[in-house]
Amino acid sequence: MKISDLVGSATANTFRSKTRTLLTILAIFIGAFTLTLTSGLGTGINAYIDDTVTAIGASDVMTVVKTSEQGDGFGTADAGPAEYDPDTVSSGQPGPPGQTVVALTPADLDTLAGIDGVLDVAPTRSISADYIQVGDGTRYVVNVGGLVAGQRTPLAAGAEPDNSSTQPQLALPTSYVEPLGFADEAAALGETVSIAVTDAERTRQVIEATIVGVAEETLATPAGASIVPNDALTDALFDAQNTGIPAVEAQRYAQASIWFDPAATDEQIDALKDRLADAGYTGSTVADQLGAFRTVIDGIVWVLNAFAVIALLAASFGIVNTLFMSVQERTREIGLMKAMGMGSGKVFGLFSLEATVIGFLGSAIGAVLAIVAGTAISSALADGFLSDLPGLTLIAFEPAPIAMIILLVMAIAFLAGTLPASRAARADPVESLRYE
Amino acid sequence: MESPVISAVNVQKTYGRGANSFDALKGVNFDIHDGESVAILGKSGSGKSTLMHILALLDAPTSGSIMLGGVDTRTLRGSRLNQTRNKTFGFVFQQFFLTSNISVLDNVMLPMKIAGVGRTERRRRGMAALEQLELVDKAKNKAANLSGGQKQRVVIARALVNNPRIIFADEPTGNLDSATGTVVEDILFGLNRQNGITLIVVTHDEELAARCDRRILVRDGQLVSDSAAVPA
Questions:
Q1: Would you tell me how many other CB atoms lie within 10 Å of the CB of residue A150?
Q2: Are the CB atoms for B184 and B156 separated by under 8 Å?
């Protein structure tokens, strides 16, 4: 029997008992549908993170902090209490509240600049503003972020703050547009806002700045839900904040950015991190920080995939059952085919191919409907409660993972089919063709 | 005298072991020549069905052997054995064994499909066989929708389609009324006479056996009489 005839016969046999085949396909369909959706979820979110990293464009920048004794995190009981260090400052890094890092001094910046592979160093000045206000309107708490060169923030309107300008400028996060009393994003452009900081002498200083852009808030926007000032505004705020502090002590930075060769490979970046660690600093790239994000998402997607695979395993017992019934019903036919000279291997092939065809139909229908449903869901969500995260396609599909899923389901179906198929292959033609 | 197309050499078949063993065939010897029509007669339980299964290479004898065209079939294994069965034999069964929910033509083409004959050749030879049995107008019908006589004619078409040297017919008229039965018998003996196909009929119907050139009577696993053994 030719392979093409074998496949053709298997496909035709699948449709001989339509209801039974349909129910089995349905069971497979549910598993494949779920698996396609969950993998689409992983693809979508990870693609979003990738896009975000690319959009930030600062792949050659590393954030450096001084490695502190308590930097190991929680539960380092064996280390005992950390020794007091007068150089600690509150960290601008994400982390538990109250965590401090050892501040970087100008001497540290010089050391960093001297490390092999470091092209440039810039301290990150952390500014804690009290509030933002338009005219005499309501005061809102605000964070002041900062972009390092090469970073970009996605804009909903206007332009990025111009660092070469001497005028204090800022980009406002979209969520501040309405509370501050602007009709829409375009209306906010060109308006003046007041930002208040408290200096070391406990007096409040108010700085005025112009809104030049409105920034979108994405999952990984460099500045998050904070205003993005230009250099002129940063200088003004930093000076105001440090009024009354001796110049030497004013130059304390929680972190610094270093630039390295944009063409550096992962190994070279790791080597640079090692050199930084030897010098007593901890460096992390944007990719590192988002890497943790991705690990969590991958973890969740794997758990969801595991549920889908369990559904598929349950469905595979449906295949075993269906084919056992089929073998039972077709005992005579199998006997006849063997009497006519069909080998046991071909009989086995015929029945296991039938299982594979069922698996293929279930998974192909499941994948196609999952793509339709996933696309509909993610576009509905993008207009709905995920509209705050523009650019996010929650469920995205790529050909390779979908092909993988279909192949996986076909493999599972084939394995399920081997049991009934081997029973069919063992059938004795004399027994099968006996009357009554 | 030309060598026999098929011969049984001291064929024994034992089912079971030890005290429970049962000898279905107790050493059977005969030769069948090309173009003969032979009836294997016997009551149920006589061992005639076992003998047919062994002759058709569906079952192996416990001892002794079947010589097919001078070749000891014990030397045939696996795909060689399957191929021999496919090319040499046609089967006609009392209960038809048609696949009921596929078309008549598909049923007839099954042996060629197993043999690996191409699609167009399959169709051509299948239609030719149906034409020979005057069933062309039924080619597209589902096998289930045919009358008993039509079904048996489809079975004969299926048996013919690979141009076999031997047709085994196991109670070919057992499920048919006498008029239809006679028609089917006429077709089988016509093939035997005109195409020279050796016909081996297993039956307990004396009338059908009487139409054969030769009658082999089996009782309790032994060959009781063979009409060819008595020179005419």
A1: 14
A2: yes
Contact residues, B window 79-108, toward A, CB-based 8 Å cutoff: 79, 82-87, 91, 93-95, 97, 99, 101-102
Whole-Å CA distances, A131 to A52, A184, A201, A228: 29, 21, 18, 14
For B59, the closest of A5, A333, A430 (CB atoms) is: A430
Tokens coding A375: 């696309």
pLDDT beyond 60 at A91: no
CATH class held by domain A127-252: mainly beta
Alpha helices in A330-343 (DSSP H): 331-339
Please state, rounded to an integer, the average pLDDT across all residues of chain A.
81
Chain A, nearest residue to B114 by Cα: A1
Name which of B25, B87, B114 to mutate to probe chain A: the one with the most chain A Cβ atoms within 10 A of its Cβ. Answer: B114
Contacts of A435 in chain B (CB under 8 A): 94-95
> Sign of the CA dihedral B109, B112, B116, B122?
negative
> Is pLDDT of A220 > 60?
no
Q: What is the CATH number of domain B6-226?
A: 3.40.50.300
**Burial (0-12, 13-18, 19+ Cβ within 10 Å), A99:** middle
For chain A, the structural domain boundaries read 3-54+293-432, 127-252
Give phi and psi for A236, each to the nearest 5: -60, -45
Q: Specify the pairing of strand A120-124 against strand B71-72.
A: unpaired
- The answer to whether the Cβ–Cβ distance between B91 and A340 falls below 8 Å is yes
Please state the separation of Cα A297 from the chain's center in Å: 6
Q: Is the pTM of this model over 0.80?
A: no
For chain B, domain boundaries: 6-226
Phi, psi (deg, nearest 5) at residue B70: 85, -5
The answer to whether the Cβ–Cβ distance between A341 and B85 falls below 8 Å is yes
Helix, strand or coil, per DSSP, at residue A310: helix
- Contact partners, residue A376, CB within 8 Å, separation at least 6: none
Per-residue pLDDT tens digits for A232-268: 888 888 888 888 777 777 777 877 888 888 777 878 8
| Minimum distance, in Å, between the CA of residue B159 and any CA atom of chain A | 9
Whether residue B85 and residue A339 make contact (CB cut-off 8 A), yes or no, is: yes
ipTM of this model? Answer: 0.88
